[in-house]
Write a structure and sequence with these properties.
236 residues; alpha/beta; Rossmann fold; Arc Repressor Mutant, subunit A; 2 domains; 44% helix
Length: 236
């Protein structure tokens, strides 16, 4: 981060919450731009230097999850913190899986909001530096891990991966030929492995194989070891 004020894009259509958030952020010497719709947010991201997006899930013209998904597909790397009235675990997990960095459930403390923003921003430059340092070591058989954009490049072309698909591929590429049981994959990849089902691993592996095939790679790169688990074989 340079010496300019932190620039936050607030995407929120509720006037009272919008005003309170802007006051709280400006009192922390942050600059705030505001959008009430997804279309307005798209225009601001294209024209302004934004450091972080506070994104409401419920917007007049779109769903915040879909907006986040479209930005990630366009390789928009900005940290995204969801603002949501949905407190269920499923909604929180969906937001993180599609590329969100954190979330706040309404009503939330403005002090907690500021603390979460600063925590996300502290992590962002660390991820960039780590990705640059490890980039050369992450390539296997034409596949390269890009930790900044949370994607895997195949011969220079990005795969469209969910949060957990990316984490699985990252683990496989950094540890080729190592066999992981389903339980080990859940422990390494899932944030709450005890609440997940082992068949979830199988479903994600199936999707990864299909995406490898779409990009001209053999789906047998991800090998099944009956009774044991899975491994990644770059020679397949």
């Amino acid at each position: 981060m340079d010496n300019r004020p932190i620039h936050i894009l607030l995407v929120e259509d509720e006037p009272s919450l919008r005003d309170n958030v802007i006051i709280a952020l400006e009192s922390e010497a942050m600059r705030v731009s505001w959008a009430g719709t997804g279309m307005e947010a798209d225009l601001l991201i294209a024209s302004e230097k934004i450091d972080l997006v506070l994104l409401d899930v419920g917007l007049p013209d779109t769903n915040g999850f879909e907006l986040c998904r479209s930005w990630r597909m366009k390789q928009v790397k900005l940290p995204i913190l969801f603002l949501t009235a949905r407190s269920s675990e499923v909604d929180r997990v969906v937001g993180l899986e599609i590329g969100g960095d954190d979330y706040l459930v309404k009503p939330f403390s403005l002090r907690e909001m500021v603390a979460r923003i600063r925590a996300v921003l502290r992590r962002a430059p660390m991820a960039v530096e780590k990705a640059n340092d490890e980039a050369a070591a992450n390539g296997v058989s034409g596949l390269v891990v890009d930790d900044v954009r949370m994607c895997v490049l195949i011969d220079g072309h990005g795969m469209e991966l969910t949060r957990y698909e990316f984490r699985l591929m990252r683990l496989f590429l950094k540890n080729p030929s190592r066999v992981y049981s389903r339980g080990q994959l859940m422990d390494h990849v899932w944030e709450e492995p005890d609440s997940a089902l082992e068949r979830t691993v199988d479903a994600h592996i199936k999707q990864l194989r299909a995406k490898l095939r779409e990009h001209g790679k053999s789906e047998e790169m991800i090998r099944t070891h009956r009774g044991l688990g899975y491994s990644f074989d770059p020679q397949s």
